[in-house]
Design a protein that fits this description.
Number of helices: 2
Helix content: over 70%
Oligomer: single chain
Number of strands: 0
Distance between the termini: 15 Å
Structural class: mainly alpha
Length: 125
């Protein structure tokens, strides 16, 4: 194998390794955001169980109004978080084929490099 070919294969290996790292990084970032959003939703679900006691206040009507407002806000926020989670999971699923291609390219270049080194050793012997 010519020195120029080895350099080209090494450069290609660097490019495919960078592309793989970038794709893996994008997927990890999406998964982290999905986990964070899910944690926010779980915390909100826990907070939604908070009930205002009208008997604890002199103005029970205002407390009931606040409780109703709180429950509406919680439900709106919960829907928004579920929507965001769905979008993130869809994007994760969308990235998986791209990652598989990039990993395949990187592994193929690595095998080509290993084969070239082995062939060069055999030729020396």
């Amino acid at each position: 194998m010519a020195a120029n070919d080895r350099l080209s294969l090494a450069a290609l290996g660097q490019v495919t390794a960078l592309m793989r790292a970038a794709a893996e990084g994008r997927l990890a970032a999406l998964r982290a955001r999905a986990q964070q959003t899910e944690a926010q939703r779980r915390a909100l679900d826990s907070a939604a169980k908070q009930v205002f006691d009208p008997a604890a206040s002199a103005d029970s009507g205002a407390v009931e109004q606040a409780s109703l407002h709180w429950q509406r806000w919680v439900e709106q926020r919960r829907r928004a978080l579920l929507s965001e989670e769905s979008k993130l999971h869809a994007e994760i699923q969308n990235q998986l084929p791209h990652l598989a291609i990039v990993v395949g390219r990187d592994e193929t270049v690595a095998r080509l490099g290993a084969d070239a080194v082995a062939r060069q050793r055999r030729e020396k012997d």
